[in-house]
Structures are given as structure tokens and as C-alpha cells.
Design goal:
With 406 residues, the protein is an alpha/beta fold. Helices cover 41% and strands 16% of the residues. It is built from 15 helices and 13 strands. Helix 1 packs across helix 15, helix 8 crosses helix 13 and helix 11 packs across helix 14. The longest helix has 19 residues.
Length: 406
């Protein structure tokens, strides 16, 4: 049996955390022992691992600049655990993994990139720059999106081996559910004949709630039957900035703020159209794949691998263009109930065919098996680079670098 240690920055709700959870719960436990290590704490996701019998270890490092004692604790823990391979998720975990590999605490190391052109704090940007210089150290670097791989190549990543493994989805958990649709609509007081558009996203500048709200204001004037749902961490009535933005656009009686929910299949069931309005940073958007698996047509901005994910089963519009987003909603409304159901079936079939969790987890298992058995030919690793190398256009630092780490 192979022991795989998964090191992640933290276990609060997020795309990387959800994919990690899906992966370790689906992997063949007769062949793989999974141990999840959080640099910070167990967060909101950790208890689900423990409940499923997956060992979870928290290092208790505070967010901010990584403390050397945290790194030493990790190295000591890994020497005791003796994993066959360390899989890291998010930039600061990649950095910790790099250091423990140099200390001889793990025999094999794989990084996992989960974003594209995300905005970073100064500290996180420095960490990423260091990682680019040392990107030949890991045995492989996984990217969950082609956009993420292209971006990291542009800023200097040169791994020994790239591996593209997209996100996977449990198509039994995420599936159409008429009973859940009726139940949640009743709970929220949404009329049966209302057309409900939902944005499942945490409150963060990269998700660009402003564009969503402006598009909603444009369409609400013409379509009184439209209702809107916002769901995700930070999207609560107590968020005064968001509440003010909603009131300023005259949408108080048209938008429901659900906050973080742990019954997302039911939330998707209540929608007619799912939307993602992100302005930057996306790799392979989990929420679009989940919505598609639930049989929903989607309209989303062109960010990360959105276009290749949706294929012909949804609409893609330019970023930061409320008018184009509202127009896409109009198109999906104009095709009627049966048209949306047909498109939703097409969307679900695409997820089942290309992104089912069983297929994706098997690719991780095959990669882990190959690397631990054969390894990857080594070459010069931590090489110096010119600071004058062209880079992607910089963006203002965000207030939370969820996909960047600490």
C-alpha cells in the first residue's frame, strides 16, 4: 500500500479544498493510504475527512509569513509518517513541500496548481517567484487547467513533467433533483414560475459580484419574473458592502443572500441558470462543473478553462461586461423551459463523459503509482533566472489569496 500525504495551506471552504476532499474519499483505500496535512488548521473541511476515516494533521501555523518552526514540525512529522509521496496543494504548501524535499523528509514530491492569473499579496507573489525558479525539483507538477499551465509557463515554471488533470465531480451527489428544487424554492419564498439565476461564489474581488449585480439590474427592469441567488462564504445579509451595492441597484426584493451552504446540490436544483462572473484567477471552476452535473445551463465569463469546460452546453461572455452577461441570460431565457432542460441534459452528459470523479481519481492514482515505482528522470533543479523575464500583467493584491496560500 502506498502512503500519500496531501499538504494544503488550510482547510476552509474553497475549490482546491473541495477537490482534495473528493479525491481522497474516492481513492482506492486498498491501494492508497491518504493523510491530509493542513499548514494552518482543520477549518470547515477537516471534520469531513475525520468522519470518513481519513487522518488529518494540523500544523497550527498562523496565516502570514511562514514560520520556520512550522516547517521543522512538518519535516519531523513526515519523517515519522514516511509517505511514499507528498502531494502539495496551493503555493505555500508547494513551498513547504519544496523545503521538506530538500531536507530529505520525503522521497517524491508533486505540486498541484489550482489557479491561473490570480492576484497575490506581496508575500505570496514572492513565494510564487521562488517556486518558478525551483519548479524542476518536484517529480511532477499537476495543473487542473490548461489556462493555469500556460500562465505558469509564462512566469517561468519549467517542471520536469507537466500533468494536466482537471477537476472531477461526483455525478451521483450532483444530479437533477426535482424535490429539492421545490423544497428550497418554497423555503426561500420563490414563486414556482420565477426564473432564478444563481452565482455560487465566495465574496471576493476576483469573483466580480459587481458585474453580476449590474447585469441583474439591467435585466430586472425588463423581466419582473427574474430572481437571483448569491451563495458562498461572505455572501450574507451582514455584509454591509454587498447589501449597499444591492440596494443601490434597486435589487433588494429580487436577490436572496444564502451565505455558505453545505447542501449545494439542493441550491443548484433551485436554479434555472448558473453563472460565474469572475474577472481573473480561475483555473477550472468547480461550481460550473457542479451546476452542469445538476443539469443546469450556464452563462459565464471567459476566465480560466471555462470555455473548454462548457463546450456547447453553455454560453461564454467577456469579463467585466454586464451587458453581455445579461444578454446571455436573455438567450437562455428565450429558449424556454424545454430548451433549458435540453441544454442542461447536454451539460450533465458532458460532465459524466469527461469529468466524472471516478475517471479523474483514477488518473491521480495512475500518476502516483508511476512516480513511486519509476520516478522521473532528474535534471538541474533550482536554477537562477533573470528578473527581466517577461511576466503576465500584474494585478492588485487581493485581500485573501485563497488559491495562493497563507
Amino acid at each position: 500500500m502506498l502512503t500519500i500525504a496531501h499538504l494544503i495551506t488550510g482547510l476552509e471552504t474553497g475549490g482546491a479544498e473541495r477537490m482534495l476532499s473528493r479525491l481522497v474519499l474516492r481513492m482506492d483505500r486498498d491501494r492508497f493510504r491518504s493523510v491530509v496535512v493542513s499548514i494552518t488548521d482543520a477549518g470547515t473541511v477537516g471534520p469531513s475527512f475525520a468522519k470518513a476515516g481519513i487522518e488529518v494533521i494540523s500544523l497550527g501555523v498562523r496565516r502570514g509569513a511562514p514560520h520556520p518552526f512550522g516547517l521543522l514540525r512538518l519535516a519531523d512529522m513526515l519523517r515519522e509518517l514516511r509517505p511514499d509521496l507528498l502531494q502539495t496543494w496551493l503555493y505555500h504548501a508547494d513551498f513547504f513541500g519544496l523545503m521538506t524535499k530538500r531536507l530529505g523528509a520525503v522521497p517524491r514530491l508533486v505540486w498541484n496548481l489550482r489557479c491561473s492569473d490570480i492576484a497575490l499579496s506581496h508575500t505570496a507573489a514572492t513565494v510564487r517567484r521562488m517556486l518558478s525558479w525551483c519548479s524542476a525539483v518536484p517529480d511532477a507538477v499537476i495543473a487542473n487547467s490548461r489556462a493555469g499551465q500556460r500562465f505558469h509557463e509564462h512566469i517561468g515554471y519549467r517542471p520536469r513533467r507537466w500533468e494536466f488533470i482537471p477537476n472531477g465531480f461526483d455525478t451521483l451527489e450532483f444530479s437533477p433533483d426535482a424535490e429539492a428544487r421545490a423544497r428550497l424554492r418554497s423555503e426561500l419564498g420563490i414563486p414556482v414560475d420565477a426564473i432564478v439565476i444563481g452565482l455560487p461564489a465566495r465574496y471576493h474581488p476576483m469573483k466580480d459580484h459587481s458585474t453580476f449585480l449590474e447585469a441583474a439590474a439591467l435585466i430586472a427592469v425588463e423581466r419582473p419574473e427574474f430572481r437571483f441567488l448569491l451563495v458562498g462564504p461572505g455572501v450574507e445579509p451582514t455584509n454591509l458592502t454587498l447589501a449597499k451595492a444591492i440596494a443601490g441597484r434597486g435589487l433588494l426584493d429580487r436577490i436572496s443572500l444564502l451565505g455558505e451552504r453545505h447542501d449545494m446540490p439542493s441550491v443548484y436544483a433551485a436554479l434555472d441558470i448558473a453563472t460565474l462572473s469572475s474577472a481573473w484567477g480561475e483555473g477550472f471552476p468547480n461550481v460550473l462543473g457542479e451546476a452542469m452535473a445538476c443539469g443546469l445551463p450556464c452563462a459565464a465569463t471567459e476566465c480560466g478553462d471555462t470555455r473548454s469546460l462548457l463546450g456547447d452546453a453553455g454560453l461564454v461572455v467577456p469579463r467585466r461586461d454586464p451587458k453581455k452577461l445579461a444578454d446571455a441570460w436573455q438567450v437562455l431565457t428565450a429558449i424556454g423551459v424545454e430548451g433549458r432542460r435540453s441544454l442542461g441534459r447536454q451539460a450533465r452528459a458532458r460532465i459524466v463523459r469527461c469529468y466524472d470523479l471516478g475517471v479523474v481519481s483514477a488518473r491521480y492514482e495512475a500518476l502516483y503509482t508511476e512516480i513511486t515505482k519509476h520516478g522521473v528522470p532528474s535534471r538541474l533543479a533550482c536554477r537562477a533566472r533573470s528578473f527581466g523575464r517577461p511576466r503576465a500583467a500584474s494585478r492588485p493584491a487581493s485581500d485573501r489569496t485563497d488559491t495562493a496560500g497563507l
